[in-house]
Amino acid sequence: MDLALRRAQPATTARHAVRALTCASCSQSNSRRFSVLNRQPPNYPGHVPLTKLERLGMAIGSSAMALINPYRADLIAQVGESTSTPYFIYRLRDAMLADPTGRRILRLRPRITSKTLSMSYLRSLPENTVGRTYVGWLDREGVSPDTRSETRYIDDEECAYVMQRYRECHDFYHSITGLPIVREGEVALKAFEWANTLLPMPGLSMFAAATMKPQERRRFWDIYLPWALRNGSRSKEVINVFWEEQLERDVEELRRELGIEQPPDLRAIRKAAREEKRRLKEIKAKGI
Questions:
Q1: pTM for the full predicted model
Q2: Annotated binding residue at 16?
Q3: DSSP characters over the chain
Q4: Averaged in consecutive runs of 10 residues, what is the pLDDT profile of the chain (288 residues)?
Q5: Is 186 annotated as a binding residue?
Q6: Is 47 annotated as a binding residue?
């Protein structure tokens, strides 16, 4: 009997060894399969590393939701970050590195907020200056420079700043073009940004034109999209403008230097359209 037990022990030990190796292999396979649970450490404060599958899911989901509600800045930010890599944000970074002012912006890394810009000082500037035009647009639209989301999903730390800079300069693009925060104005400006920066997110935003009213859609296709593509493609890359150093400059002079012409006043056009609609309605009511 002792001999039988001794003969059984090597076989049992062998089975245990095979089972242990199998379990170890399964553990390694599961670890690789669920690598999302072993996420890489962040590359900068606030950074959230994503797998390729997660990035794809975020791009699709946030794009669909942003199309439904184009005023959701958080969704638009997610679309911008998830679609800008691996190529487009590096191209924009390289465009900054190729420009003396762009290189200086990357070195100094200024931020555009109500703390870095004195709103009261900007309101004291002459009417024709860049700073007064900017703060006047902010006041008219009821917005603040403090509403831009922090970059979180771009892995390269320098490229993350490029995306942050692009976002924080967005209101300067609004002010220098005069486009308001209405669906038509936002989509027109996104078309301009796409032609100028080649980032996918502004290009995807143009699909929001399908959600416009028929009259708005006609204006966009006939007036504002041609303007946006023409001006965005021919003007200097606006990411290389050091806006903080242009505040006291004549706004028309800067527009000429950049090669940007103002589009027709969208607010005036919309107001005239509303008044015409009201007038026709009154005529129809009197006729009845």
A1: 0.79
A2: no
A3: -HHHHHHHHHHHHHHHHHHHHHHHHHHHHHHHHTGGGGPPPPSSTT-----HHHHHHHHHHHHHHHHH-TT-HHHHHHHHHHHHTTTHHHHHHHHHHTSHHHHHHHHH----STTTS-HHHHHHS-TTBHHHHHHHHHHHHT--GGGPPPP-S-SSHHHHHHHHHHHHTHHHHHHHHT--SSHHHHHHHHHHHHHHH--HHHHHHGGGGGGS-HHHHHHIIIIIHHHHHHHHHHS--GGG--GGGSTTSBHHHHHHHHT-PPPP-HHHHHHHHHHHHHHHHHHHHHH-
A4: 42 46 45 54 83 80 72 75 83 96 97 93 96 96 88 89 94 95 92 93 84 91 96 95 97 96 92 85 74
A5: yes
A6: no
